Amino acid sequence: MVNQLKISDARSESSRNIIQDEEKTDLGCCGWLLFILSAFFTLVTLPLSLFLCVKIVKEYERAVIFRLGRIVDKKPKGPGLFIVLPCTDTFVKVDMRTVSFDIPPQEILTKDSVTVSVDGVVYFRVNCPISSVANVSNANYSTRLLAQTTLRNVLGTKNLAELLSDRQGISQSMQESLDEATDPWGIKVERVEIKDVKLPQQLQRAMAAEAEATREARAKVIAAEGEMNASRALKEASLVIAESPSALQLRYLQTLNSIAAEKNSTIIFPLPMDMMQHFVKK
């Protein structure tokens, strides 16, 4: 039922648009009279009138023609040659190339009450030349202002940690918001990027101190784990040596070899413990 209502509303809206378009294309008696007179004087003054009638737009441009204040044929002209009547027709050139602009640094209060300065860059292009001319006075300037307000609105709902770590998600959210808002203007927002996030000096020092403390705590934990593993290995080695007296003698010899390799003036020879057992018993 809801889908049928939506379809009927869409059909009624499209029918209203068609009726409005038909009404707009009707110039009226005075309009047709002026159009015929303009065409007549253009034919009479040939070939001099060709310099005023023939216009050229480039591959990346489109021309929106207004005839007595109404858009002709509801579609842009170009690229290439097109003809306008000198007295009744005027046209506006629209650049279809992708345009980029920088968002000035904005002082933004994040969700966790931290003030940061954020700037960015926006890439957009004109998708519908007629809408960009008829629905907004200056599409480029309006898109710039809307990008600044959208940046504040989106970042105002983010924490500082999200702002520093999830730039891709923030850029995607801004692009969707801008694209939806500029669609009636015939503007297609292709990409939005966050360039730089500037934090206050006190906050930078606090974050650096926090990171340093975290690294020190992690280093202490790693050192403690190493000592614990070393003590366990020494315990296992002592148990193995206690089971075999010859292993202890070999350990003495290895220690003597390592001491003799160094340049020492005094060498202490370790005495095997089994030679002292007789005196210990007495």
From TrEMBL:
**Membrane-spanning ranges:** 32-57
Instruction: Name the major location.
Output: membrane
Q: Where in the cell is it found?
A: Membrane
Alphabetized SMART domains for the sequence: PHB (SM00244)
Q: In the UniProt record, which is one GO cellular component term?
A: membrane
Keyword Magnesium present in the record's keywords: the answer is no
Alphabetical list of InterPro entries matching this protein: Band-7_stomatin-like, Band_7, Band_7/SPFH_dom_sf, Band_7/stomatin-like_CS, Stomatin_HflK_fam
Q: Which controlled-vocabulary keywords does the entry list?
A: Membrane, Transmembrane, Transmembrane helix
Residues annotated as domain Band:
52-211
- Similarity annotation: Belongs to the band 7/mec-2 family.
Full protein name: Band 7 domain-containing protein
